[in-house]
């Protein structure tokens, strides 16, 4: 009998608390979702305009997004996927799929001078996941800015990838391709950057997180390269061509001319031809 | 005469005893420096002043209302599930704080992330429930909760001021001493005094909070005669 009283008491207590919490959660669900969406949009803008993005009001962010930002979804081969919403893509879920099946969001910001391409990056920090956005200038090589976030990196150390404007500003102007046209991405180097074009100073006391950022950038940006290849064929080999839309690469003649000029240049002809034919195939596929 | 004693028994709303419930934990019976409770959360979140401030408000809220609710439930609570009921009350209140913070101040919510949830494990709250709320009336328990929450908040904000000032040279994001460009938190070259000051990186690490608390205990015991030799 005594036990029954205890069970009843606990049952009532848990029912009341469950009711209170679920009512609160349900009524606040929409506000939470709205906040999350705007926070995500502010992060995207923060990769271009830095800390200024966070002080903007929700209406300003909405206006910028509707007038200046174009959102695309691309797949692992570099083709644009129609009918999917870029904002709805959760990188955590995409990473669980096999490499070929993944979709990636791409935001194109039509700035005053040129277009800025904003990529979503995702990787592992010290304790848990880290993610963010990388803004590439129109040449698809130079970084215009970054913004990072994390699940549970150490405050004052790993968390500085998010909090430190100093750290993020060092990425501006770095390049992901080297002079030979190879994809090298940007490294976060412990002990200080040696080559400032491709390296950034590491965070003291946050080596694992910094290495996590390096790997995240390398892997995530690489996923977008097939698509960039369709925008700028020959990008992988560092051609200094203008930013061209996909329409430019229409005729077979253009392809063969590019092939020839590429073949003429390097020492290891076979390697060049093989890589280029692969990229040609990608370009041709996307045309069909 | 009988009426006077009755009135004294009932207790006034903000009588001497009630005010003492709020003022004691600020100095003589401070939960962190005297009772030595709630040290854990003081370590991680006190790197910067603003998150510490928000956490302090959250703890005051949870401490006060959990004291109130448990005090109201204290007579009907079965002995076997005493601790569980207390935990459920604390956890519910902390979840309410988390949901409201997520809706009202999303950026602070993201900044504090785990630490709001860790309020559940804060010894001060459980400690006061056992030591006070289980044996006292609701209103007085509520005041005691406010007092202890404020005592805790006061100390962690003080720690955060020391750690942010000497560790990053700034206060609430405003650069005060040392070079702004070496402040890991800021990017621009803002005006600051004492540009020769090199930021003390030890202050950024959690262990420094313990050193700072130790110094606070030392200072407090030297100045407060009531605390001398209480061990």
Task: Throw out a few tags for this protein.
heterodimer; A: 288 residues; alpha+beta; 5-stranded antiparallel β-sheet; two-stranded parallel sheet; 7 strands; 46% helix; globular; disordered C terminus; B: 231 residues; mainly alpha; two-stranded antiparallel sheet; 2% strand
Report what the structure shows.
The complex is a heterodimer of chains A (288) and B (231). Chain A has 288 residues and is α+β, with helices and mostly antiparallel strands. Chain A contains eight helices and seven strands; from the N terminus they run ααβαββββααββααα. Helices cover 46% and strands 16% of the residues of chain A. In chain A, a hairpin with a 4-residue loop joins strand 3 and strand 4. The C terminus of chain A is likely disordered. Chain B contains ten helices and two strands. A two-stranded antiparallel ribbon of chain B has the order 1-2. Chains A and B meet through helix 1 and helix 5 of A and helix 5 and helix 6 of B.
Amount of beta strand of chain B: under 5%
Oligomer: heterodimer
Tell me, what's the shape of chain A? globular
Helix content of chain A: 40-55%
Global structural class of chain B: mainly alpha
Shape of chain B: globular
Task: Let me know the average pLDDT of chain B.
Answer: 83
Please work out how many helical segments of chain B DSSP would assign.
Answer: 10
- Secondary structure: helix percent of chain B: 55-70%
Element-level helix/strand string of chain A: HHEHEEEEHHEEHHH
Widest β-sheet, arrangement of strands of chain B: 1-2
């Amino acid at each position: 009998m005594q036990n029954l009283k205890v069970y009843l008491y606990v049952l009532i207590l848990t029912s009341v608390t469950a009711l209170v919490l679920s009512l609160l959660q349900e009524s606040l669900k929409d506000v939470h979702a709205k906040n999350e969406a705007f926070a995500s949009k502010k992060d995207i803008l923060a990769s271009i305009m830095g800390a200024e993005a966070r002080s903007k009001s929700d209406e300003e962010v909405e206006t910028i997004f509707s007038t200046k930002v174009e959102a695309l979804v691309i797949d692992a081969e570099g083709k644009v996927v129609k009918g999917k919403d870029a904002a709805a893509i959760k990188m955590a879920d995409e990473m669980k799929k096999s490499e070929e099946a993944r979709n990636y969001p791409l935001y194109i910001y039509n700035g005053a001078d040129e277009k800025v391409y904003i990529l979503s990056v995702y990787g592992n920090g010290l304790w848990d996941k880290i993610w963010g956005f990388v803004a590439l200038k129109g040449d698809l090589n130079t970084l215009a800015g970054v913004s990072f976030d994390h699940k549970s990196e150490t405050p004052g150390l790993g968390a500085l990838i998010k909090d430190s404007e100093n750290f993020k500003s060092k990425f501006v102007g770095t390049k992901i391709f080297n002079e030979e046209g190879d994809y090298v991405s940007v490294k976060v180097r412990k002990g200080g950057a040696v080559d400032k074009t491709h390296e950034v100073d590491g965070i003291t006391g946050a080596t694992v997180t910094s290495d996590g950022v390096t790997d995240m950038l390398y892997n995530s940006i690489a996923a977008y390269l097939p698509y960039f290849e369709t925008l700028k064929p020959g990008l992988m080999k560092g051609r200094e061509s203008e930013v061209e839309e996909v329409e430019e690469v229409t005729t077979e003649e253009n392809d063969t001319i590019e092939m020839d000029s590429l073949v003429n240049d390097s020492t290891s002809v076979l390697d060049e031809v093989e890589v280029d034919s692969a990229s040609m195939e990608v370009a041709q596929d996307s045309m069909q | 005469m009988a009426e006077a004693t009755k009135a004294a028994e009932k207790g006034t709303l903000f009588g001497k005893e009630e005010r003492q419930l709020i003022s004691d934990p600020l100095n003589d019976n401070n939960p962190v420096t005297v009772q030595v409770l709630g040290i854990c959360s003081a370590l991680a979140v006190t790197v910067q002043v603003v998150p510490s401030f928000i956490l302090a408000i959250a703890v005051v809220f949870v401490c006060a209302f959990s004291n109130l609710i448990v005090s109201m439930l204290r007579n009907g609570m079965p002995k076997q599930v005493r601790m569980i009921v207390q935990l459920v009350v604390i956890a519910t209140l902390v979840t309410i704080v988390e949901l409201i913070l997520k809706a009202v101040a999303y950026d602070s919510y993201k900044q504090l992330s785990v630490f709001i949830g860790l309020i559940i494990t804060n010894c001060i709250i459980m400690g006061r429930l056992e030591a006070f709320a289980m044996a006292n009336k609701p209103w007085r328990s509520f005041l005691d909760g406010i007092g202890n929450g404020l005592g805790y908040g006061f100390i962690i904000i003080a720690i955060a001021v020391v750690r942010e000032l000497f560790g990053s040279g700034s206060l609430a994001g405003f650069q005060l001493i040392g070079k702004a460009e070496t402040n890991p938190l800021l990017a621009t070259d803002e005006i600051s005094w004492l540009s020769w000051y090199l930021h003390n990186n030890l202050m950024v690490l959690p262990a420094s909070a313990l050193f700072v608390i130790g110094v606070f205990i030392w200072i407090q015991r030297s100045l407060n005669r009531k605390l001398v030799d209480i061990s």
